[in-house]
Design goal:
The complex is a heterodimer of chains A (165) and B (195). Chain A has a single domain, classed as Jelly Rolls, CATH 2.60.120. Helices cover 0% and strands 48% of the residues of chain A. Chain A has an 8-stranded antiparallel β-sheet, with no helix packed on it. In chain A, a hairpin with a 3-residue loop joins strand 10 and strand 11. Chain B has a single domain, classed as Jelly Rolls (Sandwich). Chain B is globular and about 45 Å long. In chain B, strands 1, 2, 3, 4, 5, 6, 7, 8, 9, 10, 11 and 12 form a 12-stranded mixed β-sheet that branches. With 195 residues, chain B is mostly beta strands. Chain B has 1 helix and 12 strands; from the N terminus they run αββββββββββββ. In chain B, a hairpin with a 4-residue loop joins strand 9 and strand 10. Classes of the chains: A mainly beta (165), B mainly beta (195). At the A-B interface, strand 1, strand 2, strand 4, strand 6 and strand 7 of A face helix 1, strand 1, strand 2, strand 5 and strand 8 of B. Strand 1 of chain A pairs parallel with strand 2 of chain B.
Chain lengths: 165, 195
């Protein structure tokens, strides 16, 4: 297949939702996600209210999560793991931690939805997770659970839509 | 100090809304596979009006007995695709749930960049790769590419991060991606320009 390029599309990478916590919350919801983009990008900058490192869990359509294969480093150690029923979004701690989640072809009704993300706690860990929402249903809703604690004040959650030509 | 609005959206800095809102991230074209077995996807006549390119890919390979996933590669060029031995180098780190490993080649005729899942029917697991090609119009330095990618087939899969270099100083105006097993329908490579 060869593609000769003659023109480009209208601007894309559009903010869909931005949330900044004014009080702590255990779950962040993105409801009624428009199906008009090709990919979604979720950018989070969070910290938790207490305790050690934990892994937020992303779920879809008010139901199940996904699967994933992670590669990570904590300090000087490296590791890898398979998660068959939970899609873990990086790590977070009581210091601000970041993750960028690419959710691709999310609105189609034929294939599973591939997801790739990179997350980090700045001073202690980095993780890459190749994941999948294993359903052919379009994604119209997402929830990001804090997993055993709560997101602290000031945490931000930004969702963008990318439209391919 | 680098002004914050000059940082790169996408893999490196998707969180900068101010940069994105002024329309600095544009879709150039998209190639979608419609019949199985297609072994190459090529972008020609890439505009020279951006600073960086981003390619967002989802892929699936045609089933091959005895293999879990296929390794895909790419070449670039100016006017024509460069397949010269020694003009590429690449490296990656990966994890498959059991082993953390690394791969690469310091002198190659192409650059490996992605593992996509094999499947007999194109309706389930797809792999994903998001790649940035930096300073692709520059004519004084070699061209570097970086990516994250992989696939999850529930009880198996692989995640990886890597980079590569095309050692030539010519601007890039053509890119080809190839896989000997062939891509399944719904495989999609979307090309974006970042100003």
């Amino acid at each position: 297949m060869g593609v000769n390029i003659t023109s480009t599309s209208a601007p894309t990478y559009v903010p869909i939702s931005t949330q900044t916590l004014l009080s702590s919350a255990s779950t962040i919801n993105f409801n009624s996600i428009p199906g008009t983009y090709t990919d979604l990008v979720l950018v989070i900058n969070t910290k938790k209210t207490s305790g050690g490192a934990a892994n937020p869990i992303l779920t879809f359509n008010s139901g199940s999560s996904g699967s994933g294969v992670r590669i990570y480093s904590y300090g000087s150690a490296t590791g890898t793991s398979i998660d068959t029923s939970n899609l873990y979004v990086g790590d977070y701690s009581t210091t601000f931690s970041q993750a960028i989640v690419h959710i691709q072809n999310y609105a189609n009704s034929t294939t599973y939805k591939p997801i790739i993300l990179r997350g980090s706690i700045i001073d202690s860990s980095v993780v890459i997770n190749a994941a999948s929402y294993n359903s052919t249903s379009p994604i119209t809703q997402m929830s990001l659970g804090a997993n055993a604690t709560a997101y602290d004040i000031g945490s931000t959650f930004n969702l963008y839509g990318i439209l391919a030509a | 100090m680098t002004p914050i609005n000059t940082l790169l959206p996408g893999i490196l800095d998707s969180g900068i809304t101010g940069n994105l809102l002024v329309n600095n991230y544009l879709s150039i074209t998209t190639a979608t596979v419609t019949s199985g077995g297609q072994t190459t996807i090529t972008f020609n006549s890439i505009p020279q009006t951006y600073t960086n390119l981003e390619i967002r890919m989802i892929g699936q390979n045609q089933f091959s007995s005895g293999s879990a996933a296929g390794w895909s590669s790419m070449r670039v060029g100016n006017g024509s695709i460069d397949s010269t031995s020694g003009h590429y180098a690449w490296h990656n780190v990966y994890g498959d749930g059991t082993t953390v490993g690394a791969g690469g080649n310091g002198s190659d005729s192409s650059m490996g960049f992605a593992r996509f899942q094999f499947n007999a029917t194109p309706n389930s697991t797809f792999g994903s790769t998001v790649m940035t090609i930096l300073d692709y119009t520059n004519t004084t330095k070699a061209k570097t590419m970086k990516y994250i990618g992989g696939y999850s087939a529930i009880s198996s899969g692989q995640s990886l991060s890597g980079d590569g270099v095309w050692t030539q100083t010519s601007a890039i105006d053509t890119i080809t991606f190839f896989n000997g097993y062939g891509f399944q329908p719904y495989t999609q490579f979307a090309l974006y320009g970042v100003k």
